[in-house]
Write a sequence for this structure.
């Protein structure tokens, strides 16, 4: 997401309560105030099943997550003859590269295909708030780890600062204050 779509903020499998219809994307990211949703599919059956989810219906499309919506698949999972959901695109992973295959292409999208309603926006805010809450939990855990392991010997008699992680963690925590 950061390389292909230039997203500054990316969350993988964000679980949050309060999203519209319980929608939980595989990956969600934001660039320029707009949201990109990516559903990763490794099998044809998984792709076909995803297209039948009730929040994928055209009637609900304006209230679902994402201004842009894409499938990321292995080659051959989605066929050119497949009827994609309106506004969706397909990218394939080929070795270390990701390339556009069918449907909507982000590079040519001057105007996002979905300018969602209030439900979609609320769902995105819910996901972001959940992520921020988890970041605070992570900071607490990191602080506790630095406290335990940052002394000579630590709880398991670890010598010094293996890999320099304690120094980097201290710096990160100081920047937050």
């Amino acid at each position: 997401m950061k390389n292909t779509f230039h997203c500054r903020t990316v969350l993988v499998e964000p679980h949050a309560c309060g999203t519209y219809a319980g929608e939980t994307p595989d990956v969600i990211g934001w660039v320029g105030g707009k949201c990109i949703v990516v559903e990763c599919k490794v099998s044809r059956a998984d792709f076909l099943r995803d297209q039948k989810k009730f929040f994928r219906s055209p009637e609900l499309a304006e209230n679902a997550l994402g201004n842009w919506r894409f499938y990321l698949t292995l080659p051959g999972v989605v066929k050119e003859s497949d009827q994609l959901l309106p506004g969706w695109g397909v990218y394939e992973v080929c070795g270390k590269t990701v390339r556009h295959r069918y449907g909507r292409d982000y590079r040519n999208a001057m105007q996002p295909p979905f300018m969602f309603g209030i439900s979609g926006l609320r769902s995105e805010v819910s996901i972001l708030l959940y992520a921020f809450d988890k970041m605070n939990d992570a900071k607490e855990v990191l602080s506790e780890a630095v406290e335990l392991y940052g002394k000579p010997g630590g709880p398991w008699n670890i010598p010094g600062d293996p890999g320099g992680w304690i120094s980097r963690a201290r710096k990160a925590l100081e920047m937050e204050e």
The chain has three helices and six strands.
